[in-house]
Amino acid sequence: MLRNFLVRSASSHLKFGERYVKSSAFLGCYKRRVNYYSTKVQSRLTSQNYPNIHRDPRFKRLTSDDLNYFKSILSEQEILQANELEDLSFYNEDWMRKYKGQSKLVLKPKSVEKVSLILNYCNDEKIAVVPQGGNTGLVGGSVPIFDELILSLANLNKIRNFDPVSGILKCDAGVILENANNYVMEQNYMFPLDLGAKGSCHVGGVVATNAGGLRLLRYGSLHGSVLGLEVVMPNGQIVNSMHSMRKDNTGYDLKQLFIGSEGTIGIITGVSILTVPKPKAFNVSYLSVESFEDVQKVFVRARQELSEILSAFEFMDSRSQTLAKSQLKDAAFPLESDHPFYILIETSGSNKDHDDSKLETFLEKVMEEGIVTDGVVAQDETELQNLWKWREMIPEASQANGGVYKYDVSLPLKDLYSLVEATNNKLSEAGLIGESPKPVVGAIGYGHVGDGNLHLNVAVREYSKDIENALEPFVYEFVSSKHGSVSAEHGLGFQKKNYIGYSKSSEEIKMIKDLKAHYDPNAILNPYKYV
Amino acid sequence: MLRNFLVRSASSHLKFGERYVKSSAFLGCYKRRVNYYSTKVQSRLTSQNYPNIHRDPRFKRLTSDDLNYFKSILSEQEILQANELEDLSFYNEDWMRKYKGQSKLVLKPKSVEKVSLILNYCNDEKIAVVPQGGNTGLVGGSVPIFDELILSLANLNKIRNFDPVSGILKCDAGVILENANNYVMEQNYMFPLDLGAKGSCHVGGVVATNAGGLRLLRYGSLHGSVLGLEVVMPNGQIVNSMHSMRKDNTGYDLKQLFIGSEGTIGIITGVSILTVPKPKAFNVSYLSVESFEDVQKVFVRARQELSEILSAFEFMDSRSQTLAKSQLKDAAFPLESDHPFYILIETSGSNKDHDDSKLETFLEKVMEEGIVTDGVVAQDETELQNLWKWREMIPEASQANGGVYKYDVSLPLKDLYSLVEATNNKLSEAGLIGESPKPVVGAIGYGHVGDGNLHLNVAVREYSKDIENALEPFVYEFVSSKHGSVSAEHGLGFQKKNYIGYSKSSEEIKMIKDLKAHYDPNAILNPYKYV
């Protein structure tokens, strides 16, 4: 690991480009997968934790006739039935183990046509269905609440086509994001989206939830990069819109409706997406600043100086790094002392010398201006990976004490961190925060400053109604008062179904409900969620 | 103008960066407005040219009661009525003068509430309405076919808000694109879209038609950069979705439906859009190559070498430049001799030295490899403007002989130019092409290679059914056979209403028609068009 450059930068002749910035030219898979199951087993069912939610009596309970039908269209490997031999917990529980459904049947069809047959049957029979990708969601959107049938896309996992001239990838929805990325990386392209769960989440799942992640600042949202979709509608109709054109103005852009629809109006089975040329050079720098005001100042400078090569601008508060330290025991902390805030900056470009020079200029300016108080720049791929770990370990570290309440919000930049402070105050006032046996470890803040996206994680020793009541609707009211969004990138799912009103007007909600009813009149798709 | 660099590049020590690439650091408004009325007056009405299209008898003909109502809610300046004093040709005719409607009434409301009142009334009374922005469309989408009321957004022309930290602009739909761009330019940002008609077209109009233009290669489509919209629905309901967050996953992304809907399901009255940091440096190079295959090779090289600073990659065929020469009489052609194809490359970035160096490396490679046979690089802002003229003059030059049939299609890169060759063959076979009195001057091709977007312009001395019958459905069948789009960026409008089936499947068309009927059950918005 590099020594910090604070003392050295006092010299005006410092050459970061030559002496310090020497990370290797290409780093494809340096970000580790952070996606594992909570250590705390959730023994209570969602239906027990939320007794006010009732099973919708319109939905049929599965019968042996239904099973026989599914057996008639699917092979044995495509059907998982709960019994003495088969435990469906993996499918019934989310990865945080906050939500636990009671499904007795998981179908894993191997073709789009089978997805169509299943939905057609379920629609006719009024059987509720939960579409499930990698089940890495954070709002309980991919697990059943009651006995909904689980339709897993995991067996639809083929790359269909890749055009190395245009960079357009067509694949099944169930392809794991990391596999898709590795595939295009071999042909000098890169998936335009990256996130911690890449080793488990599906391409279809990230599209269905309009995932944001670590590359949005540079490459924009999936609404811009997805070129086409194949979708099975609730009645089983297959809509093939797998186009591969950057420009196509022929009719309403219907695919947009399914991006971020969380499986409520159709199931995405195929994705056509524009990938981006693989950068030839990466740099990562880890900096400290003394206030959130200075985080913003560094961001403005980074946009000016790093401009077209700036690919990530993440901030982490002190407490988030303290938690990360407890998990990264073998790793030396990048800096010599603790600071209130840390920033991770990534650049990616096509010319290492140019990128080094821009980073050098940027670092000299922020050091000279005294905004940045300490920092390191990765010298090689290993160091680059290590620096990213301090950002990527946070979700895991947040719940290492037992559990975590996760909020993912958009806020104006100036208000971004005040939510974390307000939340800690609120939990203190409620007497919930402190050393064990107090249930709350603390609220931490980190996230994508460049996108105005804060992750507020409340690390807890156990899930409890007291904590939830202290947090909600408090967090949502705060966000609403600042005209933010109660879901920046995680979605609504089960957790935020009742809170959409804090971000959307009654007209908008009415239109959303109207579209849901229009496309899914029997309401069989992903019930009890979204809207 | 620079001398060509062909001979000089024989020297391996050439330094483009030092000696040739000296364009000034910032060029905001160097692209001239190309948007004027055809010299050929179209005396025939659209209804005469297309006798198979009949006025929909469901629509009410305007009465004095209707006029009295509009007078009760609007001021005198907001109403234009056809009479001896008032000629509504400007509103009834498109800028190519291909289409001519018969509207007797133009309303130019000054507030969103008035737009709402007008639509509410028209919906109740079944009065057909054509929303109109800058009326710069190329497919007859913004002018009436019969006696539809014209609702012009020209008086909704205020900048509402601009946030210099995030770069998010909120403005009325009727703000002229160039004004919006100039406004944010003063604050070091740039509108993410640029096109020839910028001096006349409206921000709302470019969103309603999902215009592509010259910056799409770099900044992506409006589906990615538009953050929020204010829309008045056909029944007059105002839907305020003027959000200003890069990330907001709370419900279906309804605004996407209106982007590219061409005013058929709602009228956009306000736009919230993410602008981009203004580049600090621009370079423009104008090159010649000997085949379309070499155009593609240069493109692949440009993506590799210019990567994150490549902001435009336009190609022009020989005939397009011959036509441009006839218009740009005072200007010297950039190169010494004629070639089959020309390429205009623009880079924009944050560091002039780095950009120059990248361009130099790129040019050295394509010259050494013998792909590029001649070329110049702009040395200053004037030269940069002049080089762009050879691309931007083409639409005007195409119709200088009397008129132009314009096709705007997406095709796989390898097939992009073959459509132009096929079209010239087809017109020759039909005996339509040649010197006067043959009606067709010739088919030319140019466009945005980076987006797979070809502009096929058929320059004619007069519009005629013979030409139209030779071109259509021939052009659309060709595009369909290559799995392209019959409208890359111009939209469907009136011209392509019946040709959507060449790009979209019957399921997709059914869903599009279903949405139209859902949101506009009386079909009052922009009838006889789109779908």
UniProtKB/TrEMBL annotation, chains A, B:
Protein's organism: Saccharomyces mikatae IFO 1815
Key words of the record:
FAD, Flavoprotein, Oxidoreductase
Cofactor(s) required for function per UniProt: FAD
> Record keywords: Oxidoreductase included?
yes
Question: So which domain of life are we looking at?
Answer: Eukaryota
GO cellular component labels: mitochondrion
Specify the FAD-binding PCMH-type domain's residue ranges: 99-278
The entry's protein name is: D-lactate ferricytochrome C oxidoreductase
Similarity comment text for this entry:
Belongs to the FAD-binding oxidoreductase/transferase type 4 family.
UniProt EC number: 1.1.2.4, 1.1.99.40
Single Gene Ontology MF annotation? D-lactate dehydrogenase (cytochrome) activity
InterPro entries referenced in this protein's UniProt entry, alphabetically: FAD-bd_oxidored_4_C, FAD-bd_PCMH, FAD-bd_PCMH-like_sf, FAD-bd_PCMH_sub1, FAD-bd_PCMH_sub2, FAD-linked_Oxase-like_C, FAD-oxidored/transferase_4, Oxid_FAD_bind_N
Q: Which reaction does it catalyse?
A: (R)-2-hydroxyglutarate + pyruvate = (R)-lactate + 2-oxoglutarate; (R)-lactate + 2 Fe(III)-[cytochrome c] = 2 Fe(II)-[cytochrome c] + pyruvate + 2 H(+)
The biological process GO terms on file are:
lactate metabolic process
